[in-house]
Design a protein that fits this description.
With 214 residues, this protein is an alpha+beta fold. The chain has 2 helices and 11 strands; from the N terminus they run αββββββαβββββ.
Length: 214
C-alpha cells in the first residue's frame, strides 16, 4: 500500500481522466476505420468495354450500356470485393444489325441474351499500394460458363466529397484478357479469328447510405 499527497492525488486523477477521454475518442475512430464501406455501381459511369479480332484485319470495339453491382472497400485493412452484373442485351458495337446479332444470334451462338441475360463478374481486391488496390482476382460468368479472370487496375481514386454528387465516389480503370472460346463463343474461329478478348472495365461507384441515388 502507498499514499499520495493531495497534489499528487489531483494530478493522478487528472491523468486518469485524460487517458479515459483519449480511449473514449480513439475507440470509435478505430472502429470506423476498420469497417469496410459499400459502394453502389453508378450505371451512368460504368460501361465495360471489349476489343476483339475481326479477320486479323482490324479490332472491333464495343461496350455494354447497362451495368449494376457493388464494391466493398477498406483502404486501411487492404481488403475489398467486387460484384458486377452486366446486361448482355445492352451490347453496343456501333451498328444496330451487329448489336442484334451479338445479343440474339444462336447460329453461331454469341451472347444469346435470351438464354443468358447477364454476364457476372465477382472478385477480390488485392495488391494494395498506399491504400489503393492494383489487382482483382475473380471469376467471370459469361454465356453460362464460369472461368477465372484476373484484372489489373491501372487507375484508382476516391473523392471523399464528389463536387456534383456530394458523396464519396471511388473510380477505377481495369484491364484483363480472356479466351472467348472457353466460354463457348467460337464465332469466326474457322476463319482464323483470334479468340482472345481484351476486357476494359471503367467503373465508378457511390458510397452507400441514406439518399444514395446512382
Amino acid at each position: 500500500m502507498f499514499y499520495l499527497r493531495d497534489g499528487e492525488l489531483i494530478a493522478a486523477a487528472r491523468a486518469a481522466a485524460s487517458a479515459a477521454l483519449v480511449v473514449a475518442f480513439a475507440l470509435p475512430a478505430a472502429a470506423t476505420r476498420a469497417a469496410p464501406a459499400t459502394y453502389e455501381i453508378d450505371p451512368n459511369h460504368t460501361h465495360p468495354a471489349f476489343e476483339t479480332d475481326h479477320f486479323g484485319m482490324s479490332v472491333w470495339r464495343g461496350l455494354f450500356r447497362k451495368t449494376r453491382g457493388t464494391v466493398t472497400f477498406d483502404a486501411a485493412a487492404g481488403t475489398g470485393a467486387v460484384d458486377i452484373v452486366v446486361d448482355a442485351a445492352s451490347v453496343d458495337l456501333g451498328n444496330d444489325e451487329l448489336n442484334d446479332a451479338a445479343a440474339n444470334a444462336t447460329a453461331p451462338p454469341i451472347l444469346e441474351a435470351g438464354k443468358y441475360p447477364t454476364a457476372h463478374y465477382t472478385g477480390t481486391l488485392g495488391g494494395f499500394i498506399n491504400g489503393a488496390p492494383t489487382t482483382v482476382n475473380g471469376f467471370l460468368t459469361l454465356h453460362g460458363v464460369t472461368q477465372p479472370l484476373m484484372l489489373s487496375i491501372v487507375r484508382f481514386k476516391c473523392l471523399p466529397d464528389h463536387p456534383v454528387i456530394k458523396r464519396e465516389v471511388c473510380g477505377a480503370d481495369a484491364i484483363g484478357t480472356f479466351n472467348r472460346a472457353e466460354f463457348g463463343i467460337t464465332v469466326g474461329r474457322k476463319y482464323g479469328f483470334n479468340m482472345d478478348v481484351t476486357l476494359r472495365i471503367q467503373v465508378e461507384a457511390i458510397r452507400a447510405g441514406p439518399g444514395t441515388t446512382p
